[in-house]
Amino acid sequence: MKLLVVGGGGREHAIIRSLKKNPDVTEIFALPGNGGIAEDATCIPIGATDIPKIVEFAVENAIDYAVVAPDDPLVLGCVDALEEKGIPCFGPNARAAIIEGSKAFSKNLMKKYGIPTAAYEIFSDLDAALAYLEDAPIPTVIKADGLALGKGVIIAQTREEAKAAVTDMMANAKFGKSGSTVVIEEFLTGPEVSVLAFTDGKTVRPMVSSMDHKRAGDGDTGLNTGGMGTIAPNPYYTEEIAKRCMEKIFRPTIRAMKKEKRTFKGCLYFGLMLTPNGPKVIEYNCRFGDPETQVVLPLLRSDLLTIMMACTNGTLAKTPVRFSKKHACCVIKASAGYPESYKKGYKLTMSDRAKKATFVAGAKLENGKLVTSGGRVTGTTAGRSSLEEAIAAAYRLSAGVKFANAFSRSDIGQRALEAKK
Ligand code: AMP
Ligand code: GLY
């Protein structure tokens, strides 16, 4: 089978490594892929949002199955366009991807179907939003409606900060059109859990839970990033909580989308907060998480391609989805200055052992040698029988990944270890 994977980060590298394990796979094309992915797939320089070119490539190369991984092509209708040409895909169509594409949509969906989430108000008028903030409880959370590269969420600690944030979004177009509508919501507290789930629109199969580390600095300080590391499973996510989430959140969401004639097929990401009043949805993503995928897929024991095709064909109920009982830890190496400004073009080297454990996020090939091309450069994953061992091994292996001005957090997994005590 000839496969196509749209995207070019660490998440896509992890997906490709798992897909390769299926003996029926003869070739994988990554659009655009990256310098590290080039070891495992044929990279084609077509951007992940260039839908006409993606479709043209897929048709010309007689692609048997496509996996669309990032949010923007999903929201823009990449799956719709490929399916129109008869190419089966893993991923939601645009009507379903709106669950991530519009926070106003997802909040209204949760309200309509009684799915637990933070209380909220939606505004498209700046004066109304400012008036509301006069008496809103503080801290408060301001979210741009549309996709904003994970940066459209502001936790405002003061009323002034809250007003400045809505003004930036609504009047100064800080996030472009994404911020012309804003959601203002209740500030929740509690541990966060990421749960990725396979679904064919009827059956939902949660994967092993994970914990992201979003802040740039140790001890959860510094700016929000795309994620500096992950561990799985998440110790806060007990069997009892998992059962409750299945009943109150996962199944109701899948049923709600079907009822709205927006049947969701693919990977649905539940960003949850375990509040004193029970688990609540912080966000939905219409795709695999990054870097959650880099710890979740290495623990998958069943065949990824078989599961993905079952999601497409509506046969997930009779397809095994099994995970190892091991623990995994992924440590990201980023370029100094990330997530703000950072330099690119540093020579990247990896020891043989490190390379096998590393998913490349931001590097390209120059004269056959890897050089950095992004803020997050690599993610190194280890799976072991205990969390302690997985963390130690991930850091040991990550030491074999080298480039100038690299930085990692030194405490990935520490909060999870404390939770276990
Ligand atoms: P998001 O980009 O939606 O993942 O949000 C970024 C981060 O903001 C989340 O991981 C949470 O830590 C935090 N966050 C979002 N919504 C809330 C909320 N209602 N209460 C408290 N924290 C929140
Ligand atoms: N790691 C968070 C996300 O993928 O949105």
Give the gist of this structure.
It contains 14 helices and 25 strands.
Write up what this structure looks like.
The structure is a single chain. This protein is an alpha+beta fold. It folds into 4 domains: 2-91, Rossmann fold; 119-186, Dna Ligase, domain 1; 192-318, 2-Layer Sandwich (D-amino Acid Aminotransferase, Chain A, domain 1), CATH 3.30.470; 327-416, Phosphoribosylglycinamide synthetase, C-terminal domain (Glycinamide Ribonucleotide Synthetase, Chain A, domain 4), CATH 3.90.600.10. The chain has 14 helices and 25 strands. Strands 12, 15, 18, 20, 23 and 25 form a 6-stranded antiparallel sheet that branches. A 5-stranded parallel sheet has the order 3-2-1-4-5, with helices on both faces. Strands 6-9-7-8 form a 4-stranded antiparallel sheet, with helices on both faces. Helix 7 runs antiparallel to helix 8 (159-170). The model has no long low-confidence stretch (mean pLDDT 96).
